[in-house]
């Protein structure tokens, strides 16, 4: 079974990204490229929590609405959200109106502040959990030993909606692994980016 499909431009891409220019753009320019910016790391983990039980495309299509609703995922600002903000967000039709997930993002913003105080940055903490062996992209699991360990550590620190499957999707997207399929036009680009990436905290 092939894990790639040809796109309109004749290039082979991961099978999951077809069907929308928005999805193709995300696949080509974001997914798997290494990220060291704390705000983006917090945003992605927050959005992966919202994605639980839904398709990533649903969340991606609403991403700008989420950014507007959650102060562009500036976790220092989100940490100040209170009960009135929760009620505002539950009424916001532009996002996923799940009270538990909304409250989790606010909780996690406070945990993110604690992590920065303890570790220096979110990036330094998360990149410690990069798997020691590179992914071939031939088999893409739902979770791994590394995502299980990271999930366990986050839960111990009080983070919410960070199960091992959610965490592995975060690791894939933020470049801790390169799970672009063999033959995908973007796989080599991601590998190049990862090769020159300065791993935070290393």
UniProtKB/TrEMBL annotation:
Any Pfam family the entry gives: Adenine_glyco
Record-linked InterPro entries: Adenine_glyco, DNA-3mA_glycosylase, DNA_glycosylase
Name the record gives this protein: DNA-3-methyladenine glycosylase I
């Amino acid at each position: 079974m092939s894990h790639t499909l040809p796109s309109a431009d004749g290039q082979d891409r991961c099978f999951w990204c077809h069907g929308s220019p928005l999805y193709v753009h995300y696949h080509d320019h974001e997914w798997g490229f290494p990220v060291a910016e704390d705000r983006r790391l917090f945003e992605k983990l927050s959005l992966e929590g919202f994605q639980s039980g839904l398709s990533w495309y649903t969340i991606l299509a609403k991403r700008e609405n989420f950014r507007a609703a959650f102060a562009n995922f500036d976790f220092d600002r989100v940490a100040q959200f209170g009960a009135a903000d929760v009620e505002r967000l539950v009424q916001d039709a532009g996002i996923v109106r799940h009270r538990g997930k909304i409250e989790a993002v606010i909780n996690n913003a406070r945990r993110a502040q604690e992590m920065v105080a303890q570790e220096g940055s979110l990036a330094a903490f998360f990149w410690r959990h990069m798997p020691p062996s590179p992914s071939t992209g031939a088999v893409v699991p739902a979770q791994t030993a590394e995502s299980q360990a990271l999930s366990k550590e986050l839960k111990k620190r009080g983070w919410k909606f960070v199960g091992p499957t959610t965490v592995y999707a975060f690791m894939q997207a933020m470049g801790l692994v390169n799970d672009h399929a063999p033959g995908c036009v973007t796989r080599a680009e991601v590998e190049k980016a990862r090769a020159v990436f300065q791993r935070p905290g290393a």
